[in-house]
Amino acid sequence: MSRVDDEYTAHVQELLPRLRRTAYLLCADWHRADDLVQATITRLYVKWRRARMADNLDAYVRTMLVRQFLGEQRTGWRSRVSVVESTPEPAATGSDVEAGLDVRRALTAVPARQRATLVLRFYCDLTVDQTAEVLGCSSGTVKSQTSKGLAALRRILEPASVREEGAHGRA
Question: What NCBIfam families would the database entry show (predicted)?
Fold first, then answer.
């Protein structure tokens, strides 16, 4: 192996767990997340000589991952390739596992562009401007997509009793 290949391998090994978790949050399917990551690191390998010179290589790769996800959403890849309704959730750790699972499930119901915005803003902890750069849109669009995505999450996570009370109060 060449020194350049060694650099690529070392960087991918370090980045892989974070990339995989981000991909899972985008698509809510570990198998598809692995496919997204594989496609992303394959593209990264092809562009490695130029990519390794990036100011922030992790951000560069994360941008590749999000664009891969959004591109597949547009092309209907998901409808052609999905073979199961859902996969089992891996065991989670933390104080409120149920709430975390509820949020993950709710996130899958949010439209892809809004989901990508929420993952970049709140999981990857990017600023509005950084998120806009990754998504290739304006900061106003990021703010709008964030607002709509959070509103959708709130509606989905709202207890049924609260939704029913609201519906009766408006009738």
Answer: SigE-fam_strep, sigma70-ECF
pLDDT tens-digit profile of 68-81? Answer: 999 888 776 555 55
Examine residue 89 and state whether it is found in any structural domain, yes or no. Answer: no
pLDDT confidence tier of residue 102, bands split at 50, 70 and 90: confident
- Nearest-angstrom CA–CA distance, 73 and 75: 6
Question: What CATH number is given to the structural domain containing 40?
Answer: 1.10.1740.10
**What's the CA gap between 58 and 48, in Å, rounded?**
13
| Integer Cα distance of 43 and 8 in angstroms | 12
Query: Structurally, how many domains does the chain consist of?
Result: 2
Distance CA 171, CA 156 (A): 21
Instruction: Please give the residue range of the domain that contains residue 11.
Output: 1-83
Q: Considering only CA atoms, which of 72, 81, 140, 82 is closest in space to residue 112?
A: 72
Q: Give me the DSSP letters along 95-110.
A: S-HHHHHHHHHHHHHS
84 HSE (CA, 13 A, CB side) = 8
- pTM exceeding 0.90: no
